[in-house]
Amino acid sequence: MLQFMPVFRVLGGLVLGLACLMLAPFLVDFFGGRRDSSFFASAIVAALFTGLTLIIMSGSREGGFELTRRQAFLTTGLIWTVIPVFAALPLMSAGLSFIDAYFEAASAMTTTGATVMVGLDNAPPGLLLWRSLLQWIGGVGIVVLGIIVMPSLRVGGMQLFQTESSDKSEKIFSRGFDLMQWIAIVYVGLTAICALVYGWLGMSSFDAINHAMSSISTGGFSTHDASFGYFESPPLEWAAVVFMFAGALPFVAFIRTLRGRDMAIFTDVQVRGYAITLLLLTFAVGVTHAIVNNVPIGDALRSAAFNLTSVATTTGFASEDYQTWGAFAVSAFFVTTFLGGCSGSTAGGIKIYRLQILAKFARAYLTRLVNPSQVIVVSYSTRRVDREVEVAILTFLIAMLATTALFTLILGWMGLDLVTALSSVVTCLNNVGPGLGPIVGPAGNFATLPEAAKIVLAFAMILGRLEFFTLMVMLTPAFWRG
Asked: What CA–CA distance (Å, rounded) separates 90 from 412?
């Protein structure tokens, strides 16, 4: 029988942590005399009460708790669905309904960046800081989940990146705690460097801190309605390209490079494939933009690099409405929405390693069609890819396709047009942010969608962020038996 006490303890501790996190924006608005500080105060009290209650309910046990695999699935699912409930409470100070606030909080925590808020330029600084903090915490949370938890749960082919392998040479650290310390060092360091660079290039200190958190977490929330286009600064856009790309790279590669193990940040097979893909896309879209809109090639390539990197890394910043660049550009942006970043990064999406492995299996399959007796070993980097990983990746893609179709049908039934319905589902499942069309495109937002649609899309964000199976497995009878 599934024991819930360890789950309650972990969930209660994280709710308490969220209450502590709320203190920063609360103090910012409290000393600024902002009325929304009362919403933060109420949310802190609610989170403290709930967190302490859950911990008390979990009881005490000598030697502590150790989560089983089923408890890990349940805990992960509850964290990403329950925590946004409390994170949403301060957002209601902006006049949002609870559903809108939950959508915004879920978008922040999953680093999707889809928003229902308008009037950001005049919003209280504490509220803007809270959105950015949620993204930043969500980003590091998914890195830890992707490096430590998901491989052990064998989710979507990520067992290929098992850090606690029986092969000692593949271990980065002997303890997960040491790995988390290094992840924190890299994450905080990248954010600090990003903020300093943004400030040096002309952002205010407040804008620099918020946009740094959004860039490294690949979240995409801005402090302005015009997003990154507000700054109208080519140097800032090029800097953002670098830091968004950094957020989409494997954090393990950063750690290995910093510890002098190798130059993984430059030699990792994912990084090389990802960089080449982005360069090719940027060149194709940039040249098309220059021809279609008679834009200088330098400006066209810069705009293409910024916006494509933003979409590919699932950040979701926008400097302009790229839907005016021509049919090819719009198609390229839609396809890029599926790309995602590398494994163990803050980015969402399919992830480049899955596409690379599938390409290898497709090539091996075509070879076997010609030479059925030939034995072909598929390897990725230095590891042999077994049948289980192939099945996991194919099942992941089937889950994404089926979910996309189902949710698009649901939104269509609610009255949304095909472009809005399909692009909304795709951008939320892949945690990108902006969709296509006049409503949810880079020049719009999700505010005017029906509340029922926002509920579906909030679930889509969480489902995609947790690689589908983490939540879907809990819908099977086998999960609750035994």
From this structure: 32
Q: If you search the block for the tokens 């040491």, which residue do you land on?
A: 178
Strands 379-380 and 383-384: antiparallel
Which residues lie closer than 8 Å to 138 by C-beta, 6 or more apart? Answer: 108, 109, 110, 111, 217, 219
What's the one-letter identity of residue 222?
Answer: S
What Rg value do the Cα atoms of the chain yield, rounded? 22
Nearest alpha-carbon partner for 345 in 260, 245, 452, 455: 245
Report d(CA 403, CA 245) in Å as an integer. Answer: 27
- CA dihedral 35→39→40→46, nearest 10 degrees, is 160
Helix (H, G, I), strand (E, B) or coil at 117: coil
Distance, in Å, from the CA atom of 244 to the CA atom of 101, rounded to the nearest integer, reads 26
419 vs 425: CA distance, rounded Å: 10
Which long-range CB contacts under 8 A does 69-72 form with residues at least 24 apart?
A: 69/152, 69/153, 70/2, 70/479, 71/2, 71/3, 71/6, 71/7, 72/149, 72/152, 72/153
What's the CA gap between 219 and 314, in Å, rounded?
A: 7
* Both structure tokens of 413: 């039934």
Q: CB 465: neighbour CB atoms within 10 A?
A: 27
Of residues 203 and 391, the one with the higher pLDDT is: 203
63-103: pLDDT as tens digits? 556 677 788 888 888 889 999 999 999 999 888 999 999 99
Residues in the chain: 482
